[in-house]
């Protein structure tokens, strides 16, 4: 890969680079779309830091001011820690917490884009987006900035329900995202929340007959949606889209060992071995099952400076586009990638694990 090493000419040091301020002042104009070509992604061996965690996550919990769950099944807030200062053990414990709780929120974070990249790198090989704009010199950053005047944004949101946008990040890659780390640094006066669903609970809330039916199935994931947006944007495609990829419909999380439902309307195309008619019916049923899962979702109200760290292997998420007449929203994401998704027929569901050994599943925080 030929990284863009150009720096934003704002007279800033790395520490002072404030993308939220730039986004407020110049909108998407701070982004660059370098005319470079990246080679295809090579396979790599993912070593998940969650395996090195302390099951009690003491390094994190003992140093936080406050830890609380936002809902029983997904989403925990940690107050009083700065991500940029975490030790390796704290990062390992955080990886396990994200694997347990799906998404972890931190408020008032000082994590600048360079620090975000360094922080993210600890959790897995960072994904570089193949056409999205990025800040100069930072191809590992995906800027989150939707502008109602941008044709690609219009195409992305028009005649869509929020539930049509439920996804897990870059699932069309052979080794998709593990964690995603998103800092929001500019918010409209109201709106722009994000919703996460627990993939563990989505599986657990199916009947035993449906669980049996879907596990063992595989689905085709495609980058067609991003291809369409790339074409609309007219920007250089820096790395060709990978061929369609096959992933299990129920995947096993490598750290917790729990089963999670892994299909979604944005990148899943079809179920392997079924007619289109059958595949559409099953996938639509599963999408509706997830979208209707208010009891296993969390809707987060951002504050400027909040960071969400979610595990794409056991959650799904959707942005809510309700704010275009309220003001601009901006954030930046780094995306460590992880293992090739797999299904272990001997793995358990989260509920099963909790029932069998409640003392081992320490996923309640009400400090
Ligand atoms: O804008 C958001 O809230 C989420 C955007 C998103 O899907 C992502 O960063 O992966
Ligand atoms: Fe996403």
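^ structure tokens above, recovered residues below v
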């Amino acid at each position: 890969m030929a990284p863009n090493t150009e720096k934003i000419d704002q007279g800033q040091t790395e520490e002072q680079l404030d993308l939220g301020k730039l986004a407020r002042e110049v909108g998407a104009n701070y982004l660059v779309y370098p005319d470079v070509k990246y080679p295809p992604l090579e396979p790599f061996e993912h070593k998940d830091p969650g395996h090195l965690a302390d099951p009690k996550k003491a390094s994190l919990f003992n140093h936080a001011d406050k830890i609380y769950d936002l809902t029983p099944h997904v989403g925990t807030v940690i107050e009083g820690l700065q991500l940029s200062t975490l030790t390796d053990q704290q990062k390992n414990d955080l990886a396990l917490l994200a694997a347990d709780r799906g998404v972890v929120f931190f408020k008032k974070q000082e994590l600048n884009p360079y620090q975000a990249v360094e922080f993210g790198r600890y959790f897995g090989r960072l994904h570089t987006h193949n056409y999205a704009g990025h800040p100069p010199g930072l191809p590992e950053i995906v800027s989150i900035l939707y502008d109602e005047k941008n044709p690609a944004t219009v195409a992305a949101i028009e005649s869509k329900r929020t539930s049509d946008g439920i996804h897990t990040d870059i699932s069309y890659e052979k080794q998709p995202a593990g964690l995603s780390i998103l800092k929001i640094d500019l918010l409209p006066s109201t709106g722009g929340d994000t919703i996460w669903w627990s993939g563990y609970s989505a599986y657990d809330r199916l009947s035993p007959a449906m669980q049996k039916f879907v596990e063992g199935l595989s689905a085709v994931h495609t980058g067609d949606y991003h291809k369409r947006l790339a074409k609309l944007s007219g920007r250089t495609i820096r790395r060709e889209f990978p061929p369609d990829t096959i992933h299990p419909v129920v995947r096993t999380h490598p750290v917790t060992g729990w089963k999670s439902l892994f299909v979604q309307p944005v990148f899943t195309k079809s179920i392997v071995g079924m007619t289109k008619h059958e595949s559409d019916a099953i996938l639509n049923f599963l999408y509706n099952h997830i979208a209707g899962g208010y009891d296993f979702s969390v809707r987060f109200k951002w504050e400027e400076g909040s960071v969400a760290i979610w595990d794409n292997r056991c959650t799904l998420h959707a942005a809510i586009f309700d704010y275009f007449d309220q003001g601009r929203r901006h954030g930046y994401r780094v995306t460590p990638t992880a293992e090739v998704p797999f299904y272990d027929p001997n793995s358990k569901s989260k509920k099963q694990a909790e029932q069998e050994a409640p003392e081992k599943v320490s996923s309640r925080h009400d400090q």
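The longest helix spans residues 276-291.
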